[in-house]
Amino acid sequence: MRGPFWIVHSSSPTPPTLSLWRGTRAGLVFSLRIILEKDYSGPVFKEPAPSEFQLPQTSLQIPDRVDVLIVGAGPAGLAAGRRIVDAGATVLIVDARARIGNPPRCGELARDNFMEVFGFDPEPDWVRWRIAELGNMPVLNRSATESGAARILSRRGASVAEGCALMGLGEYDGVGRTARLRSSHGSMEVYARLVIAADGAPSRVARLAGIDTLISPLETVSCLAYRIIDTTLENANNIRFEFPPVLNPHYFWVIPSGPSEANVGLGVPAHRGHAARPLLDRLMDETGALTGGKRIQTIVGWYPSTLPLETPFVDGLLVTGTAARLIDAELGEGLWQAAFSGAAAGETYVDVGERGTSAQELASYRDRVDRLYGPLRHGYAKRRKREARSG
Predict the structure, then answer these.
(1) CA angle at residue 127 from 122 to 131, to 5 degrees?
(2) What is the architecture of the domain spanning 5-42+217-304?
């Protein structure tokens, strides 16, 4: 379960001022205000103007020309980078966060073949726990996984820039696109034969290329989760995943991340005005899935609960992961889909890059990710049916 934007604060009853970084849209603001409205009387969020972005320091000398520019160093961007770097192409991966992998996101539960699709052999700290009764499905430490994968790509020749945001994107000139980037050192331009949008929803990169990525608040899910340690779990070898009527058509989860720790959260319809914190606290008490413990982190976010982009490509650009809305609208699963689509994007460039990156050449990417579309449409239909039953 992955939300494209997550804002983390301490376990204090009153969260500190929260800063929203680039790409924040009206739907996100709406979602966060709903989830915090009755629990928190803090500031009203707005999207910052480009001149207001406060980016962390980056020391990397950014190249002015690469084969592929990847925007976003989550599972999609890193999986794409692995395939392209291994083929010997030049790659620049940029991410606006101060540290790749932070803040943490989602419940971190992945499919058992996630690492194979992701393209990396996991290091010991990449997996927090394995769910024995679900075939040893891994619960990731996403911070360690993503920062570790980025270091591996850097050692293999990729340029990886943290604290660097894409601010503008030029028209396709028949060969590639010019991207305008900004870091703590100022603005710069990079020319790339292909740009891969792996920046989550609603993808700013794809929108700059002319793809309509705006999402209605009616098709978003607000999420709230706690990281809890020193707790007594009902069953540390299985997850708890329920659809309580009060959350219809969405869900409550308990995902063990160790013998005495868990990620506990819920998804609520963003447009219904629920106060998520009291709901989550109540469900934790009612289900009996865990007893006691210490909340060490609170994570708030959202994800699109809609159909995937039908055409996730244009001249010189591919759209991957949650940026392409490749996320299960019923269950919120997006990690595996992100890695799969990122790998497909990388393989597409390896196959067609020498011939060019026009939309005609890149259309094979849609064929590669087509196996995702049937299950995602089915999940969306199930979510809509459950919602209709609730009135």
Answers:
(1) 125
(2) 2-Layer Sandwich (3.30)
Domain ranges of the chain: 5-42+217-304, 65-214+307-387
Q: How many helices (H) and strands (E) does the chain have?
A: 10, 18
Write out the two tokens for 242.
């329920």
Tens of pLDDT, residue by residue over 152-179, are 999 999 999 999 999 999 999 999 999 9
Report which of 201, 222, 219 is spatially closest to residue 34, judged by C-alpha positions. 222
What are residue 221's phi and psi, to 5 degrees? -120, 125
Helices assigned H by DSSP within 105-158: 114-118, 142-155
Is 118 within 8 Å of 111 (Cβ atoms)?
A: no
Q: Are 43 and 69 in contact (CB under 8 A)?
A: no
Q: What number of residues does the chain have?
A: 391
Q: Which element (helix H / strand E) includes 184?
A: none
User: pLDDT tens digits for 337-357?
Assistant: 999 999 999 999 999 988 999
